[in-house]
Design brief:
Blueprint: H1 12-15, H2 21-29, E1 41-46, H3 58-71, E2 75-80, H4 86-89, H5 98-115, E3 120-125, H6 130-141, E4 145-149, E5 156-158, E6 161-163, H7 165-176, H8 182-191, H9 204-215, H10 230-249, H11 253-256, H12 259-272, H13 277-289, H14 295-304, H15 319-325, H16 327-337, H17 353-357, H18 367-370, E7 384-387, E8 395-399, E9 407-415, H19 418-426, E10 435-438, H20 453-461, E11 469-472, E12 484-489, E13 506-510, E14 515-518, H21 522-530, H22 543-550
Parallel strand pairs: 1-2, 1-3, 3-4, 9-10, 10-11, 11-12
Antiparallel strand pairs: 5-6, 7-8, 8-12, 9-13, 13-14
Helix pairs in contact: 3-10, 5-6, 6-13, 7-8, 7-20, 9-12, 12-13, 12-14, 12-16, 19-20
């Protein structure tokens, strides 16, 4: 319990002294009283809304967090942030707004916490850009902070088949290829998403929740608890208690978000086959924390880390299955025993990773199936591969979990937007051996660096996932499967070499050796780029106009300069 006689809080700037009479009057209007003034004021930055399945239940989670804060001696005050559902935004102009929402979320939390003198904040979120946005705010503000996600959705079921959101996107491609009837497609739609939570596989939302735990910013074991499980509310209450301990102890995010903690997070991501979006987000979070993190760190860590957690989309099991066998602590314990993570890194418990794991004992059932023995992994190297070459001199990213062919050579088919490419796929214009190039979808060119899930899922759904590759300066959903290369930098709109590619150019993707090359001479590339004309801006007002002017390269996290 906080002893308010011993500590003076940031919030004293709005509650202490005669000159703050107007401030206290306003706080009385929202229900506070003399017994509250002088206690730590804790912001609950919730992202509850009625639009996103991952967030629909966060009002209940937030109430439990507030209960914990009150028990710990604090005054919780809740506000909401925006929260985009990437699934609903997918495949149309709405996806251009998704990545930039990460910046808006971080900015809005900074504004609320600073404007009102909060002593600490708790971030509550479940989905793709909201989670990293909140972590960016924690790093930037550096007031005592803790994160809690809303938990994964459970898998849907149709007969004896388990379904997730990714199956619905691939089903569209199957239907276009005549492999499903309209009635069968409708059944998949009706059964794939059975209730609240972030999409059930190791897609971006669950990847970022797990990474948040690996960074040390969540209560150990909390990231994988399903949204509908009563333990989620227990974790919420404990999160409220823990933020008060952080206030009392003065432990701040930058004490936790060390370079070593980021390496731990990358290691866990590589071992589990997480989303490529984690690369963008960790770069952006590290930048806010003042930690120098580069693509080379991801490449180095992934090369030394075995991939041994068998999760959808690259594997067979859902995040709820990982939770049943021990969750993130099980994975981190195995990595610690191998000497692959930094046990000295601090966490929100006030203890180090090693101390948290010292007495950890996992459940015994299914452990060898969902989480394999690292000495007999799915792959000897981690799932994230950084590629470079004359198409991407600053780098590009691919994920090899579940990918059958790690090399591909074939002719380019060029499309200057996601819509063009999707139309070509649905019209059956893509042939085995092709390399689909989608450009002008980068941070500035899109603008907004859209995810290409509608295209990649349609390719896989048509049965071409093992013999067609895709390259883009845009991004991929965590649900993407196949040899798909994204985050190509420099992007086309910045005059990167991808802008100079032409239909029929022979492209080689080598995920074994990290190479991405076009069989085009340097002289020819230079000639083509000399005649290249920058595209006209697509937006002249609003947030996308700002983002198209100020967005950083994907190789730097695609934040705002």
């Amino acid at each position: 319990m906080i002893d308010k006689q011993k500590l003076r809080y940031r919030s004293s700037v709005i509650v202490e002294g005669v000159e703050r009479t107007p401030h206290r009057a306003l706080l009385r209007a929202i229900g506070l009283s003399d017994t509250d003034f002088g206690k730590p004021m804790v912001a609950i930055a919730n992202s509850w809304n009625e639009i996103v399945p991952g967030h629909i239940h966060l009002d209940k989670v937030g109430k439990k967090v507030k209960d914990g804060v009150r028990t710990g001696g604090g005054v919780p005050l809740e506000f909401d942030t925006i929260a985009v559902c990437d699934g609903l935004a997918m495949g149309h102009e709405g996806m251009k707004f998704s990545l930039v929402s990460r910046e808006i979320i971080a900015d809005s939390i900074e504004i609320m916490v600073q404007a009102h003198g909060f002593d600490a904040f708790v971030g509550l979120a479940s989905c793709d850009k909201i989670e990293p946005g909140m972590l960016m705010a924690m790093a930037r503000l550096n007031v005592p902070s803790i994160f809690l996600n809303g938990g994964p959705m459970c898998m849907g079921r149709l007969g004896d088949k388990r379904l997730s959101t990714g199956d619905t996107f691939e089903a569209v491609g199957q239907y276009s290829a005549g492999k499903l009837t309209l009635e069968e497609l409708k059944l998949i739609e009706m059964h794939a998403c059975p209730g609240p939570g972030s999409c059930a596989g190791l897609y971006t939302a669950n990847t970022m929740a797990i990474i948040s735990e690996a960074l040390g910013l969540m209560i150990p074991g909390s990231s994988t608890i399903p949204a509908v499980d009563s333990r989620r509310l227990d974790a919420a209450y404990k999160t409220g208690l823990t933020i008060m301990e952080l206030v009392e102890n003065g432990l701040r995010p930058r004490d936790i978000m060390s370079y070593e903690a980021f390496i731990n997070a990358i290691t866990v991501d590589a071992a589990m086959g997480g989303s490529t979006n984690a690369v963008l987000h960790l770069l952006a979070i590290a930048r806010e924390a003042g930690v120098k993190l580069t693509l080379d760190d991801f490449d180095r860590v992934s090369k030394r880390t075995p991939y041994f957690v068998d999760l959808i989309p690259g594997g067979r099991y859902a995040v709820e299955d990982l939770d049943r066998v021990g969750g993130v602590p099980l994975v981190m314990k195995k990595l610690l025993e191998m000497g692959l993570i930094h046990g000295e890194a601090l966490t929100v418990t006030g203890k180090s990773v090693s101390e948290n794991l010292r007495n950890y004992r996992p459940p015994v059932s299914m452990v060898g199936q969902v989480v394999r023995d690292p000495s007999s992994p799915i792959s000897r190297r981690g799932s994230i591969v950084i590629l470079r070459g004359n198409i991407a001199p600053e780098g590009a990213v691919t994920k090899i979990s579940g990918v059958k062919n790690l090399t591909h050579r074939g002719p380019a088919k060029i499309y200057d937007s996601e819509e063009e490419a999707f139309s070509a796929v649905m019209n059956r214009e893509i042939e085995p051996g092709d390399v689909v190039i989608i450009r002008y979808e980068g941070p500035r060119g899109g603008p907004g660096m859209r995810e290409m899930l509608t295209v990649t899922a349609a390719i896989v759904g048509q049965g071409l996932g093992d013999n067609v590759a895709l390259i883009t300066d845009g991004r991929f959903s965590g649900a993407t499967r196949g040899l798909m290369v994204g985050h190509v930098a420099p992007e086309a709109a910045a005059g990167g070499p991808i802008a100079a590619l032409r239909n029929g150019d022979i492209i080689t993707i080598d995920a074994i050796n990290g190479r991405l090359e076009a069989e085009v001479s340097d002289e020819e590339f230079s000639k083509r780029l000399r005649s290249w004309t920058p595209p006209s801006p697509k937006y002249h007002s609003g947030i996308l106009a700002r983002y198209s002017r100020e967005a950083l390269s994907a190789s730097l996290g695609a934040g705002l300069a």
